[in-house]
Specification:
Shape: elongated
Helix content: 25-40%
Radius of gyration: 25 Å
Strand content: 35-45%
Order of helices and strands: HEEEEEEEEEEH
Number of strands: 10
Number of helices: 2
Structural class: alpha+beta
Distance between the termini: 21 Å
Largest sheet: 10 strands, antiparallel
């Protein structure tokens, strides 16, 4: 193979290696999932469907998990004054981890009119991985406390996960899921596709530059040998 062809082949191999890294690198996956709630209220049973969104952001040695409702659930026969309602929920963990995560949020910041769907504020909690791997987060039971009463809303349609996240436990403890390729001090794989593309593009560029540097070294070596 000629020197020029060998150099071109090296550059192509470096580019392909960068592409392979981009394809193999793990990423978080989030989607909005419709959850059908059956609610036990002080005035009887009620049902409602709300799209649920769960997001994860790196926070210290753990992750801040935020759960959002896009539609209201349940209702009250009387007006709920500002600060009268206190919501909380449970998120089910799956994949490399198991158990539940409790999330909570602020009370209602405005009056909730009687007989209207109750809009739940975003609820959040801190998740600290016990095992490394891909962990799923699925909507669980929602609890609404208001005016001395408690309403419990349970998902009845076996919803799928709203978030799948590659995590690394302290010390890199292995779980049953896919192993994460980062250390605990590395950045969280972003849930947003744009941020992930930027981060992974940088990684692929590093591989490409390494290949180009090798080709340049061979070029200089070939030139030096030709002068002798």
């Amino acid at each position: 193979m000629s020197y020029r062809n060998r150099t071109a082949a090296l550059a192509s191999a470096a580019a392909l290696a960068g592409s392979a890294v981009l394809m193999a690198a793990p990423a978080a996956h989030a989607e909005v999932v419709d959850v059908k709630y059956q609610c036990k209220t002080p005035i009887g049973d009620k049902s409602a469907v709300s799209p649920i969104d769960i997001k994860g952001v790196k926070s210290g040695s753990g992750y801040k998990i935020t759960m959002s409702w896009q539609k209201g659930v349940s209702s009250s026969p009387v007006d709920l004054g500002k600060g009268a309602m206190s919501p909380s929920a449970v998120i089910k963990l799956g994949g490399a981890d198991s158990g539940t995560l409790n999330v909570s949020g602020p009370a209602n910041q405005a009056v909730v009119p009687a007989n209207t769907p109750i809009k739940i504020n975003d609820l959040s909690g801190t998740y600290t991985p016990k095992k490394s791997g891909k962990v799923t987060f699925t909507a669980g039971v929602l609890t609404i406390k208001a005016l001395g009463t408690t309403t419990t809303c349970t998902p009845t349609n076996s919803p799928g996960p709203s978030l799948s996240l590659d995590v690394t436990a302290a010390g890199g403890a292995a779980g049953s899921g896919t192993q994460s390729g980062t250390d605990s001090g590395d950045a969280l794989p972003q849930t947003g596709p744009e941020d992930s593309a930027i981060a992974l593009g940088t990684l692929g560029g590093t591989v490409l530059l390494a290949g180009a540097a090798g080709a340049l070294w061979l070029t200089r070596r070939h030139q030096a040998a030709a002068r002798r």
